[in-house]
Design goal:
This protein has 233 residues and is α/β, with parallel strands linked by helices. The protein is built from six helices and eight strands, in the order αβββαβαββαββαα. It is globular. α2 crosses α6 and α4 packs across α6. β2 and β3 form a beta hairpin. It has a single domain, classed as Zn-dependent exopeptidases (Aminopeptidase, 3-Layer(aba) Sandwich). Helix content is 48%, strand content 18%.
Length: 233
Amino acid sequence: MKGSRLKFIFFLPALLLYCLLPMTGAAAQPKMHVVLIDPAHGGEDKGVVSDKLREKDLTLKIALLIRQEAQKKGNLQVQLTRDSDRGATLAERTAAVARFKPDCLVSLHVNAGFGKKAAGYEVYFPGFRQTVAGGGDSAAILKDMAKNKHLNDSVSLAQQIQAGLDKVFPRKGRGLRDAPSPLLDGLNVPGLIVELGFATNPEERKKLVEEETQLAVAQALVRALQAYFQKGP
């Protein structure tokens, strides 16, 4: 009897260690975050066209590069609203949010100005407005609180993207902008619109069509997304 008790005492620590090992391994696995990238325009909708630059082509190229770069990471799964030169309606892009259930949405665009001097990138997030007029209705209040959290998370993501793009386009940031958007308004996830530069500016247009710049933009956005999720939206 005494020998059996001693065996049990020595066996117990090994048993506890065996039980804890799977838990430790599971905890070490990085959490997978789903990101929906929206390359603006497509198909017959060319977007901004300036010289050899077409907005629909540039946004798609960078979106595909973002997906490619994200595959090298262990915690990002990138989905696209379109992965080829085809048109996509606002309803289809909104439906993609419901289908993929992403943790955030980033819509890629290229800007245009009335002259050739306008330059720089811009990041837009949804406007801060009272989204639900609920009075004392608890359901409406909770819905409003959730919406405001998504707006705050959008700003946090915008700040990370701004920091990332500053390294690609030094001193070209035009600031974070609060503006309504048909795509972003009403979303139940953090969302942004990123204007990557002005196609109408000869210097920026030349840089944007370079493959080196396109890859640098994609890598900067992937790093920004990782930093955003690491901080915990």
